[in-house]
Every structure is written in structure tokens, then in C-alpha cells.
Design goal:
alpha/beta; seven-stranded mixed beta sheet; five-stranded antiparallel beta sheet; 17 strands; about 25% helix; binds flavin-adenine dinucleotide; binds FE2/S2 (inorganic) cluster; binds magnesium ion
Length: about 280
């Protein structure tokens, strides 16, 4: 059993939890993820390792409430336990030898980008962190991202906070102003990663994107996490989750990501008496 040490609401959609999992904390690197199961009837869901504290054995996860399992997880409190918490899974993000990087996060993707920015910054890479959110009340991790970067650029789609516009607008303005990066890391909605990659291709900048397809076993056996990269089928759980952003077939990934939407919606019944999720 894995105890919830700390729970912090970051905004109305996103919560941070520290889970006691010393073996995962000892090994996890930026870009890796865990798969958890709430109880014996629960499904397995993958979540990125947002941080670790080897002294206390805590692993930080940051999740967005989007469906049944994340809503039920959010009903748990400090001191409650999770049945399974398996990891670290996946391949760590490639950061070696990168001197100047742009890390681009979209919404919840900023939580997944945070450990990547931290790891780059810790090795001495000059990091421009571009963090985009739909609006002011959805901004998360601002001070953490500032600490993990050389320069933090926050933007909101509606202009309610910081600069108005998409992360691609900010990245383009930096590139047009003559900034150059050895590598761009883009993490967020598929459509955002598609357009960041299109832009960086024009400028010839190698780009890594973090793919989050449906995963079940997380160890390369079920085939659910297929993505097509450079015309070849890859399994995001073992070959990724990071891939060359210029080679990913985004349109296929977008189609696959909504394949089970009708079933997931059926699972999400809000209880009219308690407001909870059944
Ligand atoms: P559902 O209603 O079941 O699904 C909502 C949407 O979530 C689906 O349309 C689908 O796109 C996605 N999803 C559902 N089940 C899975 C699954 N088994 N595997 C992958 N995606 C699924 N989310 C976070 O909030 N924070 C993270 O740090 C994070 N890291 C991830 C890392 C990886 C490697 C992957 C593959 C996904 C990550 N996700 C993360 C997405 C997260 O796994 C899904 O949001 C979660 O599984 C939704 O479950 P649900 O039952 O609450 O919602
Ligand atoms: Fe099963 Fe990747 S999740 S092969
Ligand atoms: Mg689900």
C-alpha cells in the first residue's frame, strides 16, 4: 500500500499529491512515469513522476481531473492509501549535452514539463520555459517553473494573465528575435505539440514531444500505446514517452486518443445526492 503524504489543490482541475514510494523515488528520472491502481477494482492509469524526494521517499504526482479514476483519486485525503504504484516506467528524457533549451508546456503539460526543466537546469543548461494556460485561474507551478529555468515566459490564451497568446506565438517571437536552441521540448495537448513541431522544423531545431496515448500494462506487452513515428510503429511505454516531434503522426494519435470516449463518459456518473463520482 502507498500512503498519500500530502495533497495540494493547484487549481479547480489539477491536484498535486506526494505518495510514499521510496523505491520509485530512489530510481525515477525526468520523463518517467508510474502506473497506479486505486483498489482491486480500479483501472490502471499512468501519471508522470513530477518530482522525487529520496530522503523522505516521496514521489510527487500532479493530475488533472478528467474522468472516473482521477475524480475518485481526488476524493482521497492525506493518510489514505493506493493499492498499486508501479515504476519508474518509460525511458528518461534525453538531456545530455544540451546547452540551450526551450521547454514548452501547455496547461497540465507544464506539470509534466516541470521535471524536464528541473533536470536541464540542474545540469547547467540555459532554459527558456514557456508555460501556456487557457486563463489566469488555471495557471499552476509558476514559482516552481521560474526556479527550474533561466527565463520563464507565461502566456494565457485569453490574455487574463501575463502575455496574451499561444505558446507557439511566444516560441516564434523568441526565434524571430534571434534566440537559438539546441533542443526544444514540447509537452501538452497533441495539437499544441503538432504546431510547436511544425514551427521548430522550419527553424531546423531538434524537438522532443511527450506522447500520452492510452496505456494499460506500461511494459510493452499489450500494444495499446501504439504511436507511429517516422512511419514505424512504436510503443510509447517502452520506446517513449518522448519521441522526435518532427516524425510523429499526430493526426493518427489524435484519432486514437478519443477512441474510448463514449465508454469513459458512461463510467463517469455523478451522484446527484453527494456530488461524488460513482
Ligand atoms: P477517463 O475518462 O478514463 O479518460 C479521459 C482521457 O484520459 C481519455 O480520453 C484518454 O485520452 C486518457 N486516458 C484514459 N485512460 C488512459 C490510460 N489508461 N492511459 C493513458 N491515457 C488515458 N495525466 C495527468 O493528469 N498528469 C500526468 O502527469 C499524466 N502523465 C501521463 C503520462 C503518460 C505516460 C501517459 C500515457 C498519460 C499521462 N496522463 C497524465 C494522462 C492520464 O493517464 C489520464 O488523464 C488518465 O488515465 C485519465 O483517467 P480517468 O479514468 O480519470 O479518465
Ligand atoms: Fe501496453 Fe505500452 S501500454 S504496450
Ligand atoms: Mg478511466
Amino acid at each position: 500500500m502507498y500512503t498519500i503524504l500530502r495533497k495540494q489543490v493547484l487549481n479547480r482541475e489539477v491536484t498535486r499529491m506526494d505518495i510514499l514510494a521510496p523505491l520509485v523515488a530512489a530510481k525515477a528520472k525526468a520523463g518517467q512515469f508510474i502506473i497506479l491502481r486505486l483498489d482491486e477494482f480500479g483501472e490502471r492509469i499512468p501519471l508522470t513522476v513530477a518530482g522525487t524526494d529520496t530522503a523522505s521517499g516521496a514521489v510527487t504526482i500532479i493530475y488533472q481531473k478528467v474522468g472516473k479514476t482521477t475524480f475518485v483519486l481526488d476524493e482521497l485525503s492525506e493518510g489514505d492509501t493506493l493499492l498499486d504504484f508501479v515504476g519508474p516506467l518509460g525511458t528518461p528524457t534525453h538531456i545530455v549535452g544540451v546547452e540551450r533549451a526551450a521547454v514548452v508546456g501547455g496547461g497540465l503539460g507544464c506539470a509534466i514539463a516541470w521535471p524536464v526543466a528541473k533536470a536541464l537546469h540542474a545540469q547547467g543548461t540555459e532554459v527558456d520555459m514557456i508555460a501556456g494556460f487557457r486563463s489566469k485561474e488555471l495557471v499552476i507551478l509558476e514559482s516552481e517553473l521560474a526556479q527550474a529555468s533561466t527565463r520563464l515566459h507565461v502566456c494565457t490564451d485569453d490574455g487574463s494573465y501575463a502575455d496574451r497568446g499561444f505558446v507557439t506565438d511566444k516560441l516564434k517571437s523568441l526565434l524571430d528575435a534571434g534566440q537559438r536552441f539546441d533542443k526544444v521540448y514540447a509537452i501538452g495537448p497533441l495539437i499544441m505539440m503538432k504546431f510547436v513541431s511544425r514551427l521548430t522544423k522550419e527553424f531546423g531545431i531538434p524537438t522532443l514531444v511527450s506522447m500520452n496515448p492510452i496505456m494499460v500494462d506500461g511494459t510493452g506487452m499489450c500494444g495499446c500505446c501504439r504511436v507511429t513515428v517516422g512511419g514505424k510503429v512504436k510503443f510509447a511505454c517502452v520506446d517513449g514517452p518522448d519521441f522526435d516531434g518532427h516524425e510523429v503522426d499526430y493526426d493518427e494519435a489524435i484519432r486514437r486518443s478519443v477512441a474510448y470516449k463514449p465508454f469513459e463518459t458512461q463510467k463517469l456518473h455523478a451522484c446527484k445526492l453527494t456530488g461524488g463520482v460513482l
